[in-house]
Amino acid sequence: MSTEEEKPRIGVFICKCGKNIASKVAVENVAKYAEDLENVEFSQINTFTCSAVGQGAIEEAVKTHNLNRVVVASCSPTMHESTFQTVTEEAGLNKYQFQMANIREFASWVTKDPEQATEKAKRLISGAVARVGYHEPLEESIVPINPNTLIIGGGIAGISAALKIADAGHRVYLVEKTPSIGGRMAQLDKTFPTLDCAACILTPKMVDIGKHPNVELLSYSEVVSVDGYVGNFQAKIRKKPRYVDMEKCTACDDCSDVCPVLVPDEFNEGLSMRRAIYVPFPQAVPQKYTIDKHSDRSPCRVSCPIDNNPHAYVRLISEQKYDVALSKIREANPFPSICGRVCEHTCEDVCKRGEYDDPVAIMSLKRFASDYFRNNEDPVEVITPTRNEKVAIIGAGPSGLTCANNLLEKGYPVTVFEQSDKPGGLMTSCLPSYRIPEEVAMYDVKRILDRGANYKNNTKVGKDITLEDLQKEYQAIFVAIGMQNPAKLDLPGIDLKGVLYGLPFLKEVKTGNKPKDLGNKVIVIGGGNVAIDCAKSALRLGAKEVNVVCLESRDLSCDDAMPAHEWEIEDTEEEGIKIHTYLGPEKILGEDGKIKGMETKVCVSVYSEDGSFHPLYSGEKGPTLEGDTVIIAIGQRTDLTGFESLETGIAGTLKADNITYETSQPGIFAGGDIVFGTPSVVNAVMEGTEAAISIDRFLNNEDLKAGRIKDMSKVEIVDRDVEIKSRVRMSKAPVAERIKDFREIDLGYSEEEAITEAERCISCAVCCECLECDIICEPKAIDHTQKEEILEVDVGAIVVATGFDGFDATRKPEYGYKKYPNVITSLEFERLSSASGPTEGDLITKDGRPIESVAIIHCVGSRDINTNQHCSRLCCMNALKDANIIREKLPDSTVYEFYIDIRAAGKGYEEYYQKMLRSDIRIIRGKVAEITNIPDTKEDEGKLIVVAEDTLIGAILRVPVDLVILMVGIEPKKDARDLAHILHLPCTEEGFYVERHPKLAPTDTVIEGIHVAGTCQFPKDVPDSVAQGESAAASVLSKISRGEYVTEPTKAHIEDDLCSGCRNCIGLCPYLAISFDEEKEIAHIDTAVCAGCGVCVASCPSGAIIHKGYTDEQIFAEIQGVLTD
Amino acid sequence: MVVTKEENVKQTDWEPKIIGFLCKWCSYSAADLAGISRMDYPPNAIFIKVPCSGRVDPTFVLKAFADGADAVFIAGCHLGDCHYIEGNYKAMRRYELLKATLKQMGLDERRFRLEWISSSEAKHLKVFVTEFTEQLKELGPIELPTLAPLAKEEI
After folding, report:
1. CA–CA separation, A57 vs B110, rounded Å?
2. Per-residue confidence (pLDDT) for residue A1, from 0 to 100
3. pLDDT of residue A491
4. What pLDDT band is residue A710 in, cutting at 50, 70 and 90?
5. Which of A650-654, A960-964, B75-79, B105-109 has the lowest mean pLDDT?
6. Which candidate in A27, A260, A310, A963 could, as Cys together with A300 as Cys, close a disulfide (CB 3.0–4.6 Å)?
7. Residue of A nearest to B26 (CA)
8. Cα gap A814→B46, rounded to integer Å
9. Dmax over Cα atoms in chain A, in whole Å?
10. A135 backbone φψ class: left, alpha, beta (φ>0; ψ -120 to 50)
11. pLDDT of residue A385
12. A529-540 and A502-511 are packed helices; what angle lies between their axes, rounded to 10 degrees?
């Protein structure tokens, strides 16, 4: 409490607020009550305390009665606190020697019973009087205002605000999320009621922004954080990478001509497709191209072990650029013909398209591209070595040849040693011809050798030449000898004549030698692809019955699944081969040294919990199979003869680092099956690729490991509307024919089929990085390596003008949006009708039919308790305008409008409505119940039927139309709340930003220095958005012209003497305003940084922190005051 | 122990007294909005404006009970929406501690509430105050715990 001399002399001024307060609260009674409160010297009733008369009365009373405190009991302090503080100040007191009692919002307006309202008002006043006694004079501090302004959103509201501020001579940062400014207005065709073209009135303003010296346009950028306070905000802005150099781009459009990607065009509301490199619309500002690229690469690319780019080559095939597609494939994989047939294609397993219908047939498209050129011109480029270091490759399988190929490209002279008489390894010597004809496989293999590799066949290391010899002559060696020896089984009868092994069998078949005496019945042991190949080969060699026996399960999703590929198994079953699962071989039965059959045993599980091969048998006997031949195909074993100087790994493999592929001896690398077992061709290619990188680094004396861990994490890609369309099935040779010989089963795609299939790729990650744009761009503006930038700008004020999203009409399923193609939204109609739209302004249905009749449905998602309760304000006028346009463009058409109420409150709007009423548009009052495609009569077939009640005549109507336009409501942007969090802006329940006062401060917010404009605040039309933009600009300019801003003194302050130095408060302050003074051992608050939340005050155990304006004494007094009876 | 004197309640026209500490950014605005929207709710709750729910010192709550409040509530912004970044999280932690302390002191925990009310949720405020008042009418007037006279030998 103040000292005796300063004993509070309080004046209480009770406002009747006309009748707003006085009708409920007995003001006379309250005034009398107030007069009797402690320290109250004077009380008075005013009709409108906020009026000049009321304000004068306060000033007068302060002087007459020598008051030193003022209490006004009236409305909310939000409304008039500053008004009365000013009066208090003008009366000669400090403006903080004032307190308000909110008896209107908290009493008279919310309490039914007048007596109770009066009682509540008394309590509120008692609290205010008790509190104000403790009010001390406070000094405000003055902060300078930074004259720069940040405007978020480049629609018409943001543009209007930016131009006003910039024209006044101040700097503006205009941040726009999309590649161009213009916002929703740029999408509009015509504007009501004048029917002038939106682009014609908007684009000059956009151009002004683009070339205004005071506007820094930050398009394709987003605000990520805002700190500070009025006059001194620090904003961080993320400039998303455009992958195009803005300085160099001349907007010549060459790039989008060559871009193979097609995605729905947002600007045309998905009615047309655009390229990945694009300008959103012809009049875009800035006139610069942008590459739309997902932050992750497409899942197909990520999943590919060799980093191939299926997205690019599939899209290139869809654009008939087969040569580019094939060279893209060959960049990562020198075996397109082979991998186009036998790849395990993990890319298809993760294809986004597979989530809608079938994954894109990536492997088959790769085959198409390679077949196309194998059958056409495909010259080999011979490479002349540029390096002196020689490299030896041991083994001409996929791994060795890939390594050779890649090292040739790097300029190394490469020699390939092969122990057999032909290159290609298993690809050319074992893969059955019905899967890949030898000449096809050999084509890829020969191309590599023809590029300039020195090839030596029939040369076995350890026999014809030693590893040590090679080490002397070659600076680096890659060992990729594969697995040569078949795994054996220890079984009774294993030595019988007629027991064959998988790979040697396949190899022999491939050479064309038909193994003798296969017999009629063949048993194959094994569940992998080799076993399946053996079974099918046996069938083709004339076996009448083939049985495959394997330990694993046919269910390929379980843990014990067969290792063979699903599609291989399917083909096999189609050909009549039986697969016996969960069976192991027990004994091969023989008679006279010849095989008669095989006994089996039941297997219950194949792999142990840690995933290792550990079959368990139940002990039961399985069926006994008859057979003349048994082919064992249970895997291969290594043969390391000649490589004894290298360390070995598990199961007889060579030991090599799993990133660099370096063996125990520097300069010798190893990969392929000899190191990693027998996974697949594509894995062998990967190992060859990686080994080539290591060898290159080794020969350049570089770090072998740096930056080589591949990120194969799952890619999250947003869903899109996709029209269901199944995969183009590749034709196959008929079963009855194909099992007679070794002809290829799959026949390949025709050109037409390939294009249709390739077009199914939805470009889920948008840009495919085919780099075609980079090649074509003459000014060299493309930069696919661009990274995002974070800009930091200091501004004094912020204008938020982020606009709206249309109501998602699928939330009203009865209207059939997205179900019936000819039900469109109002924004889609704008694009359809626009001369720059997908049809150049021709009004036709989606399937290209002429339009005879149209229904326009009002209030879709608006004024509806199930969706949005608010009225979207502009749809009525928009609907009338659309009807007007349709009637102008199609004079013979019939247009129906279905409305609830017509709201035409605006200058010239009612007149326009009256004009439309007098036209021949059929305006029907009644909400539409349903839109269906079930016709009533034959003539209506193919039309949409609008079912509604005409409430003026009380009749149910069924109106057949060709096109339905849904006047979708206006909703806040989907991410409006994210920005609200960044700015600490309050939102309405729907998510619109809340203005400071609905009438008196429509573009201010509760946060000083942050303003709102346009539809992010609430639905409004173009003129209102412009007005708000300019209103916000005026608020900003008034602060800039003043140059400084008076901050509230209601902040925390530490009484040094009381502080114990416990540091409790320091960690609590979210603004880092509290520091510790090591010398005095006490905490200190930086008032400029303190925001005045009071969190530290409540935490101080010694009561050393004083919250000015909210001191403990003041609040205690208020509590006591309101509770005093 | 707090004892409810039911008969007293019936005899007098007793009304519960509630003190609410309202964050000025959200709940106080919600209360203003309730007024502007002319929502009708019981007059029992008196609102005291604080800059943030994190400003509410436990002693404010104790003071209110000591001065005769039958119940106290704190209303702040929804978690994540605090104007001062995280003041409401601090309020939430303090609330739990204080509630436990009050319970140990013999106060019915239903007399002390924490509610998140955003500036647009006037209806939420109205429903909350109405239901809280109803609940308190059932609980009856508070009887603050007093120290039992100490036995002589203990002194």
Report:
1. 46
2. 45
3. 85
4. confident
5. A650-654
6. A310
7. A986
8. 48
9. 135
10. beta
11. 92
12. 40
Two structure tokens written together for A464: 């014809």
- Residue-by-residue DSSP string for A982-1018: HHT--B-SSSPBPPSBTTTBTTB-SSTTEEE-GGGTS
DSSP letter string, A588-600: EEEETTEEEEEEE
**A1021: its two tokens:** 């039309």
pLDDT at A382 over 70: yes
**Cβ-contact A1003, A1031 below 8 angstroms:** yes
Distance CA A416, CA A394 (A): 6
**Mind telling me how many Å the CA of B33 is from chain A's nearest CA?**
8
CA distance A557 to B106: 61
Quick one: which of A169, A154, A266 has its CA closest to A202? A154
* Within-domain flag for B2: no
* Beta strand A141-144 pairing with A1044-1047: antiparallel
Q: Running DSSP on this structure, what letter comes out for residue A298?
A: P
Q: What is the pLDDT of residues A766-800, one digit of tens each?
A: 999 999 999 999 999 999 999 999 999 999 999 99
Question: Among A294-308, A876-890, A986-1000, which range has the highest average pLDDT?
Answer: A876-890
Half-sphere exposure of B61 toward its Cβ, with a 13 Å CA cutoff? 28
DSSP annotation of A250: -
Angular region, A707: left φ>0, alpha ψ -120 to 50, beta rest: left
Q: Which amino acid is at A1001?
A: A
In this structure, of A967-971, B82-86, B115-119, the range with the lowest mean pLDDT score is B82-86
Answer yes or no: is B151 within a domain.
no
CA angle B106, B107, B113 (to 5 degrees): 150
Q: Which two tokens stand for residue A506?
A: 């396949």
Residue A79 Cα, gap to closest chain B Cα (Å): 10
Per the structure, the complete domain to which residue B68 belongs is given by 13-139
CATH of the domain at B77: 3.40.50.960
- When pLDDT is averaged across residues A181-207 and rounded to a whole number, the result is 94
List CB contacts (< 8 A) between B84 and chain A. Answer: 1070, 1091, 1093, 1095
Average pLDDT, integer, range A914-927: 94
Q: What angle do CA A11, A15, A21 make, to 5 degrees?
A: 140
Q: Pull the structure tokens for residue A949.
A: 């009640």
Cα–Cα distance measured from residue A885 to residue A310, given in angstroms and rounded to the nearest whole number? 46
Domain assignment present for residue B91? The answer is yes
Query: Is residue B148 assigned to a domain?
Result: no
Tell me the residue type at A479: V
Return the structure tokens found at A337.
Answer: 């013909």
pLDDT at B147 over 80: no
For residue A707, list its beta bridge partners. none
Q: Which of A480, A530, A479, A532 is nearest to A504 (CA)?
A: A530
Q: How far is CA A381 from CA A336, A414, A450, A456, A755, in A?
A: 16, 16, 8, 21, 28
Strand spans (E) along A78-125: 98-102
Nearest partner of A1096 among A1046, A1119, A1062, judged by Cα: A1062
**Residues of chain B found within 8 Å of residue A1115, distances taken between Cβ atoms:** 48, 50, 57, 60
- In the numeric block, the tokens 């039961």 are attached to A620
Q: Is residue A997 less than 8 Å (CB to CB) from chain B?
A: no
Residue A263's SS3 state is strand
Query: Who's near A27: CB < 8 A, 6+ residues apart?
Result: A14, A16, A21, A45
Is B3's pLDDT higher than 70?
no
pLDDT at residue number B4: 47
Could you tell me where the DSSP H helices lie in A919-1017? 976-983
What pLDDT does residue A405 have? 95
Mean pLDDT, chain A, integer: 92
Q: What are the chain B neighbours of A986 within 8 Å (beta carbons)? A: 25-26, 29, 81, 118-120
- Give the pLDDT confidence of B40-58 residue by residue, as tens digits: 999 999 999 999 999 999 9
Number of domains in chain B: 1
Closest CA to A632 of A531, A561, A545, A563: A531
- Partners of A1112 on chain B (C-beta within 8 Å) are 57, 59-60
